[in-house]
Amino acid sequence: GAPRRTDWACMNQPIAPSPRSDASLTELLARAEMLLQSQPEAAAEATQAALRLSPLDPRANHIAAELQGVLGEPEAGAARLRQLVQQHGKLAELGGQDDGAVAYIGRFGSAVCPLCGGSEAEATWAGNLSRTQRLDGHIDPVRLWTRCNRCELLRVDNPVPAGALAAHNTHDTAAATPPEPDELQRRIRTHDADLRRIREAGCGLAWSTDGQHSGPRVLELGSGWGEFLAAAAWRGFEATGVQACSIQAAWAERRLGSALVHSPPDTFVHDSEQEAGTYEVVVWRGDLGEQADLMPTLRALRRLLAPEGMLMVQASVLDHPLHRIKGNAAPEWRSVGRRVWFERPTLALALIRAGLQPESSWDAEGCAGEIVVLARASNPDPA
To answer: What is the mean pLDDT of each run of 10 residues along the chain (383 residues)?
Structure first.
């Protein structure tokens, strides 16, 4: 059935006391901003009091628009936010900006649903991205989330183009220091549990037919410091990783003996036709929610798999209990690079349409609100 709609109001939060009748405009606005994410209903009370004192105050009207965006009127809230940031440039960079920085660059274009191609959608959430991060004139500050009327995928109405993302440098650079031994051991233990689940599920025997392989072939895309590759080799897999960061790749090769291809994972996946049907297991470490080409990426991952092979992906899911508790405060709403936010049914639908049948899932250790999914390559490949 259709996924249950999320109640966007935060749950189980203590009721904040009402603002004092003699509170100043500054006090009321500070209170409203403090409560905006955790207790939006209480923030609305303070905002209304501020507007009674100063109906034209830009900051008060901006907070009121944000509250519209999370308390039932997201489309109207987004329109009001856009008007305000156009009129008052500082509202496009709430955290402050350097002299000469461009405050507002205009709206990015709307996109159709990457899962089903539908264009009709219901507005779900609206807010200002600059409340939690600097945008430096590269990113439209107004974020509007919508739910596809056809497949129910939650998606950003006007996602950030690749060029703007590159200019903004939203992706963190790789850590320059490898994990300490205790942390490395903890990560290997976590991967060991995942590999045990893969073994139990079965990943095909194509590797054993020509006598050239020591075990099931596993490919990890985005290998970091190589902990998963080390765990896989220890478990008897023939493991290969793909890693763009030269520092991490060199350390993994030298210290853990990992076999690595030095390449951005996205580039490898889309340019590796010669690798088709090669691996019993493919592990994708990228964030599917940030993929500009979601379905082509999933189909490319499917093509890498040998018959009966398994894809392992990790994803943040909106219907996770943690996100239901966080409600409006969940950081995914304001993630600059995110384009879609899955629920379990829409993630399953995306995998199935790419020729991958979900078989099991579990909570991702140490990653709040995320699940790991195992999906088997269907036969034949629908693509």
So the answer is: 40 61 89 92 94 95 96 95 91 72 74 95 96 87 96 96 79 69 92 94 88 92 95 95 93 94 92 89 95 95 96 96 89 94 98 97 92 89 56
Own/partner pairs for 193-201, CB < 8 Å, 24+ apart? Answer: 193/365, 194/228, 194/312, 194/372, 195/231, 195/232, 195/235, 195/237, 196/235, 197/360, 197/362, 197/374, 198/281, 198/310, 198/312, 198/374, 199/235, 201/310, 201/359, 201/360, 201/374, 201/376
User: Would you tell me the crossing angle of helices 40-53 and 25-35 to the nearest 10 degrees?
Assistant: 160
User: Six-digit token pair at 304?
Assistant: 């890498």
- Tens of pLDDT, residues 69-125: 999 999 999 999 999 999 998 898 887 655 555 566 778 988 999 999 999 999 999
pLDDT in tens, 27-61: 999 999 999 988 999 999 999 999 999 999 999 99
Beta strands in 205-322 (DSSP E): 217-221, 238-243, 259-262, 279-284, 305-316
Tell me, what DSSP letter sits at residue 333? G
Compute and round to an integer the Cα radius of gyration of the chain: 23
Strand pairing of 356-363 and 370-377?
Answer: antiparallel
Measured in whole angstroms, how far is the alpha carbon of residue 361 from the centre of its chain?
Answer: 18
Angle between helix axes 58-70 and 25-35 (nearest 10 degrees) is 30
The residue whose two tokens read 């899955």 is: 342
Residue 135 sits at φ, ψ, to 5 deg, of -115, -20
Rounded Cα distance, 265 and 259, in Å: 15
E runs forming strands in 202-341:
217-221, 238-243, 259-262, 279-284, 305-316, 340-341
Q: Give the whole-angstrom CA distance, residue 28 versus residue 175.
A: 41
- Percentages (nearest 5) of helix, strand, coil residues in the chain: 40, 20, 40
Report the alpha-carbon distance of residue 65 to residue 79 in Å, rounded.
Answer: 8
pTM here is 0.89
